[in-house]
Please model this.
Amino acid sequence: MRITAQLDETFRYAQVNFGGILKDVNLYMTPEAQIGDYVLVHVGVAISLIDEEEAHKVFQYLVEMGEVEELNTPN
Amino acid sequence: MNLQCPMPTFDFDVITVGHGSGGLLTHNLLKSGVFNLLSNPWLDQQHDGAIFEINGKVAFSADSYVISPLFFPGGNIGDLAINGTVNDLAMCGAKAKYLSLSFIIEEGLPINLFWDVLYSIKLAAEKAGVFIVTGDTKVVEKGKGDLLFINTSGIGEVHPNAEIHHQRIFADDVILISGNIAAHGIAIMSVREGLTFESSIISDTQPLNDCVIALLDHFGSDVKFLRDATRGGVASVLNEVVEMTSLGIILNQSDIPLEEEVSSACEMLGFDPLYVANEGVFITIVSKNKANDILQFLKVFPAAENAAIVGAMQLDFPKKVILKSSIGGSRLVNYLPGEQLPRIC
Amino acid sequence: MLMKYLSEYRNPALVEKLLKEIFAVTTRSWTLMEICGGQTHSLIKNGIPALLPEKINLVHGPGCPVCVTNISIIDEAVYLSRLTDMIFCSYGDMLRVPGSKESLLEAKASGADIRILYSPLEAVQLAKENPDKQVVFFAVGFETTAPANALSVVQAANLNLANFSILASHVLVPPAMEAILGDPDNKIDGFLAAGHVCTIMGLGEYFPIAEKYKCPIVVTGFEPVDLLQGILMTVIQLENGTFFVENQYARSVHPEGNVLAKHTLSKVFDIKDRVWRGIGNIPLSGFELKDAFSSFNARVKFDIPLINLPENTECISGEIMKGLKKPMDCPNFGTKCKPEFPIGAPMVSSEGACAAYYHYAWNPQLV
Model:
């Protein structure tokens, strides 16, 4: 994610990479977002930062159930 | 839009109604533009029509091109105009030979844009191995057109091995797609107003006649159906097939060839790639026992290097196209009413 | 959308394991409702209802903002779009919904300058670039979309734009949940709460609801793995007789939500009563622009004639959205009512329940 322009707080934009597509996204509501972070975007505005630890927990839950040893968890 | 062939000097910047009215201006435009660039024995006659001989069964097809914007990543309206008709003939099992080319130009079209389109037409015709033998140019007043409309019609020689009839399609026949889908529609979206995003996705417009004719050479009657997946995408073609045959179709989502970037764009815009237009992809339905051989054969051609077997005809659920999702669930793939519109959430 | 975290949440092996778990824990019949058009769409598109045990009945709530927007608001939109020197902007979804005379798409075909935009911020940009035109943005949506719509008003205010305004139709999820759970005919046992709505608003509003109606609420994402895990968590609670609020979508949802987004919302909007198409008036269930921003309120700026036409009584969208009926229970489903000629909004919106079933349900008896 690359920050391209900065006017005032309401106009803080970045270029966000959606699997190869680059789109300008407004970061006003995710001021803590930095280059390299993953964000959830809705109608051109980033609404949250993806918590990678939490993202892995879905898989952890199933590991605890003893059922996913053979799965490759995402890095 | 930076093409190699230098534009001749015209003493005008934009095309006017005078250029289409048949007088000296028209003559100058056509002579320095169209005729010179596309020169061949038929056009050079500058006759009202073209006379030629042709062998055997003939296929004839026509199409009009009204795309906006005229230029998009991967091509322009000229490429579509040639490839579209060449491909329609290929889908009839015919090798395209002679095309007509007609323009309806809106007054005010800059001559350099017209030249770029014309030059693309020349290159596309050469690549497809077809001659443009006749045509027409009209200019309408400003506001009565959309910069440029093109109509092409084409004549081709039907391959002697071709037996393409939907009545020959049976249950268990296998369905193949010739390449990655949805690129053209997304490429257009990426330059339409209000939906701009940066991507490296380009239109897949290309002639398909070489690989189709070769396919018929080798596999003849095992090829039962051919259709290119243009407006309405793969889903529309397959719905037409189940309608015509009264059979059902089962598709496997994980087998459908789709580039990741195109997939992402579709996700972002809320489009289903099965409904997005293609300009260089065809669907073929073939005998089950030859399906793998046909697949390997097709993949040798650059136009079909991403070809894949995606499903089959079936007796179950007649007149329905069913998609088995990658997670194991199933769903219908219907006709789409109207155009896809980007979603809210 | 996070591409990296998509494919993992569609992993077939994970889906299979979650389904096994669901089958293992389900002993009784339960009715679950989700209240987000995106989730409805994802469930039906992935064929999930047919994969679940028969005892689990999935019904679909009023989670499609297009579907619950009153027909009179469509008429307002069409009226505005036809004014001279007007650029009317909208999300694509709204264009096909029929008003009492025509849809926005039909107005566009007959010459109205209507633009489909991906983001309300693009409308602000349009207003900036076209000072001689009025630009109105059709600001529809739940709490997920409302902050972006609010931000567009803030941006326009910062830029001192005199030619930008919004036609607002915002709806809120928790009051709708209360209306459904409070209905004497209510059959819902557990709720999947909308992951993106809660990304903005957090979990706080749902605790009193779970408590009052003794109904477990699990905030859930959109991908197959999310939905199945959300269903599993809800069923486990139901089998155990608990009614907590749980968060399956923790990778995006924090308990407090997005504080900045909530702040922007409260700066720009008041909460008012709102009529939901097919359901009726739900108190304090919609956002309206505050008086301080009335110069950006298209209803204040333009004199829109009041159009109040009765709903087509043949449409049972209200009962469908309250989970009392399924789309296929409607006598007109697929016959008189199809996406090409819809009687009500749920058949024409790409996230409406009727449209989802019509497009994707391969066997009406199974789904």
Observations:
- The radius of gyration of chain A is 16 Å.
- The beta strands of chain A are 2-5, 13-18, 21-26, 39-42, 45-49.
